[in-house]
Design brief:
Layout lengths: L2 H28 L6 H19 L7 H10 L5 H14 L12 H20 L2 H21 L6 H11 L5 H10 L6 H4 L2 H7 L5 E5 L6 H19 L4 E7 L9 H16 L4 H9 L5 H12 L4 E7 L6 H6 L9 H12 L6 E7 L3 H7 L4 E4 L3 H17 L1 H4 L3 H12 L5 H13 L3 H22 L4
Parallel strand pairs: 1-4, 1-5, 2-3, 3-4
Protein name: Nephrocystin 3-like N-terminal domain-containing protein
Keywords: Repeat
Pfam families: NPHP3_N (PF24883)
């Protein structure tokens, strides 16, 4: 919304609020049994006019004033929404006066119609809803003018930095670098993915054993979600990701929520007032407070796509040290996942979770998610693409004689069921073998493959 549009909207609001207040006062003075709601409408519109008059004194060439205007502007900002609301409210209050040249009968008929309209207002919830909205928009405008809610960009960044505990972006960047062109596309064609992306389902669980490429796939899918959001151009659809890691030795529930709300604040370039107060008091929010903050931030969004990668690694290292079962996430993270999918406060959340298929996560996801297994022929084809791409791209492999290259590719392609990580480690090992020892190394690779296939009942 440009400055001229804002000025026009503010002027229109002042005029309409004055008209509405005038009509209300007429009924209050004239009709003995007027609806009590008219008094509230009268007071709110008179005060709204005063607040909007304050907006007229803001100067575009003043940095602070321009920041206030930017906060309130926009097609769905408080000023525009306030104008729409008061227009609807005015339409509920027809003028009781007839044109000056009307007959006494016409004036009486007009007045009677107005009384009927007042009786309808008393029974209808629409006027109450409009009044609540008008009060909220007026308060937002008033607080912004006073500077109570106005934060500079540097203040928003400072609070967001204080909010976040763990930054998973290095893991995301590293995973993106490992993605091989052409891999992961099989997910995009699946019914489960498209149902989730089109909001037909709310939760998608991608599960597979360690080394099957879940992390790289998650990074690829995150990028696809972001591209979809950009194509739609909807400022009210956001995407936030989080990567769990056993290296952090922590329960990831609170770090995940702190990252989630900090990212939403960054993307909105705004911080809720109660978060600002927590920051000023130096009090970090707890789990339930974070869920409450998330609920507040969702109010202005249409949808929020959330991706949690490697959920089984929440507190995994501590489990190892305590000699507990490996890969059992602390229940608080799973409770948060469950809450996001079952609590009506978070109905705008679309959740994608990746993990190993252990029983604890399976129990949590049961009944709330659609599942995609990484144990399938499409993943095996992705592994083949990865093998050939790496053999063709690294200079060390290009120096091999063609027969060695063919033997290695053939053997590795037969071991696709062992997953990306095993293939990658094996290629690293072969890369360090001198040419004179390469034939023996490839022979050992084939022998190991035969032994492994016998234990797995897989034909070679």
């Amino acid at each position: 919304m440009d400055p001229l549009s804002i000025t026009a909207s503010v002027f229109a609001i002042i005029q309409m609020s004055d008209r509405v207040a005038g009509v209300c006062k007429y009924y209050i003075d004239t009709v003995k049994t007027y609806p009590k709601e008219l008094r509230v409408i009268f007071i709110e519109n008179k005060s709204l006019g005063v607040v909007c008059e304050g907006l007229q004194f803001l100067k575009q060439d003043n940095v602070d004033d321009a920041a206030i205007v930017a906060r309130l502007a926009g097609s769905d900002g408080p000023i525009a929404e306030c104008e729409k609301t008061i227009e609807q409210l005015e339409s509920l209050l027809p003028s009781p006066t007839a044109p000056p040249n009307s007959t006494p009968e016409a004036r009486m008929q007009r007045f009677q119609l107005a009384l009927d309209a007042l009786a309808w207002i008393r029974k209808s919830d629409k006027a109450k809803i409009l009044l609540r909205n008008l009060t909220r928009f007026k308060s937002t405008i008033s607080l912004a003018i006073e500077g109570s809610l106005l934060l500079t960009q540097s203040q928003v960044r400072e609070i967001c930095k204080w909010l976040q505990h763990t930054d998973p972006s290095p893991e995301h960047d590293a995973a993106r670098e490992l993605h091989e062109e052409g891999t992961g596309n099989w997910v995009l064609g699946s019914g489960e993915w498209n149902d989730w992306l089109k909001l037909k389902t709310r939760c998608l669980w991608i599960h597979g054993i360690t080394g099957t490429g879940k992390t790289v796939l998650a990074a690829y899918l995150i990028d696809q979600i972001r591209k979809m959001c950009e194509r739609q151009g909807d400022q009210k659809i956001h995407c936030v990701y989080y990567y769990c890691s056993c290296k952090r030795n922590q329960d990831e529930a609170i770090p995940f929520l702190r990252w989630l709300v900090s990212q939403l604040c960054r993307q909105k370039n705004d911080v809720p007032e109660h978060v600002s107060k927590l920051f000023q008091s130096g009090t970090l929010p707890g789990l339930q407070q974070l869920l409450g903050i998330l609920h507040d931030l969702l109010a202005d969004l249409n949808h929020l796509f959330v991706v949690i990668e490697a959920a089984e690694q929440s507190n995994r290292l501590r489990s190892l040290l305590d000699r507990e079962d490996v890969g059992i996430p602390r229940r608080s993270l799973l409770k948060v996942v469950r809450s996001l999918m079952t609590d009506i406060r978070f109905e705008k959340v679309q959740l994608l979770l990746t993990s190993c298929p252990n029983e604890h996560i399976k129990a949590t996801m049961s009944g709330i998610s659609d599942g995609i297994s990484m144990s399938n022929l499409d993943v095996e084809e992705d592994v083949r693409l990865f093998i050939k791409a790496r053999l063709r791209s690294e200079p060390g492999f290009l120096d091999w004689p063609q027969n060695f290259w063919d033997d290695a590719a053939r053997g590795l392609c037969k071991s696709v069921k062992r997953g990306f990580r095993w293939i990658d480690d094996t290629l690293d090992g072969l890369l360090g073998v001198p040419l004179e020892g390469l034939e023996d190394a490839i022979g050992v690779l084939h022998e190991e493959l035969v032994e492994w296939s016998l234990t797995q009942n897989v034909g070679v």
